[in-house]
Amino acid sequence: MIKIGLTGGIGSGKSTVSKMLINKGFTVIDADNIARDVLVKYPEIIDKIKIEFGTGFFDWRGEFRRREFGNHIFRFPKQRKKYEEIIMPYIKSEIFKAIEEYEKKGEKLIVLDAPTLIENDLHNNMDYIIVVWVDNNTQVIRLKNRDRLSRDEAINRLNSQLSLDKKRDYAHIIIDNNGDLLKTKEQVDKVIDFLNVINK
Ligand code: ATP
Fold first, then answer.
1. 5 Cβ inside 6 Å of ligand 1
2. Does residue 10 surpass a pLDDT of 90?
3. Residue 42 covered by a domain
4. What is the domain-level CATH number for residue 31?
């Protein structure tokens, strides 16, 4: 099975590209969905978060306040590291399980859409890496608009990841998403032609 890693920075357009691939019938494993699902599937993660960070990030019903927690950990990198140490092993293990299941089913090619593919060393398990790239300014503006963040919050989030310029160095394919969606789609179509060739 051919494994394609699709990555980028926060708000660089990974999900936009991923949707284009899904629309063309590609199988995409979404690491962000897995990150949400593990919180439900493995309640011990929440227990570990409570032990490490206290109950302040839970409302009166005991619901996890993800947004506040997100802002907190992105403001304090050491705290983010602690959180990642708790949750990443679960996410990685679920990703590997999903890959294995597709392999067993006889799938010939899958795409793993993972924002921190490289930071978490998952790129070494992939055959090809696609990086969805935008310049820093565009990234801040799109992130601010999409998540209704202040400029500082957006920048804190961007600083938590390896820069997109560094990620480019790992890419076999770069999709430049600075332009409009049509320009991106044209590039995605070329990528699809390539994937169809290697998938024969
Ligand atoms: P994250 O990893 O944070 O989920 P992402 O890389 O998946 O981010 P998207 O959600 O695809 O990024 O895109 C970020 C925002 O930018 C979205 O609001 C999206 O609609 C918008 N966007 C994406 N590509 C373009 C484009 N080419 N032109 C204009 N807006 C775009």
1. no
2. no
3. no
4. 3.40.50.300
- From 16, 17, 138, 144, give the residue whose CB has the most ligand 1 atoms within 8 Å, as the site to mutate: 16
What is the per-residue pLDDT for 84?
Answer: 93
Output the pLDDT for position 144.
94
- DSSP class of residue 12? S
Tokens 């299941």 locate to: 101
User: What's the rounded Cα separation, in Å, for the pair 47 and 55?
Assistant: 10
**Distance of alpha carbon 162 from alpha carbon 147, whole angstroms:** 20
Overall pTM surpassing 0.85 (yes/no): yes
Of the candidates 30, 64, 28, 59, the one whose C-alpha atom is nearest the C-alpha of residue 45 is 64
pLDDT of 71 higher than 90: no
Report yes or no on 187 lying in a domain: yes
- Centre of ligand 1 to C-alpha 10, Å, is 8
Q: Please tell me the total count of domains within the chain.
A: 1
Question: Which atom number of ligand 1 is nearest to the Cα of residue 8?
Answer: 6
> Sorting pLDDT into bands at 50, 70 and 90, what band is 106?
very high
Q: Cβ(14) to ligand 1 under 6 A?
A: yes
29 CA from centroid of ligand 1 (Å): 18
Q: Is residue 86 part of a domain?
A: no
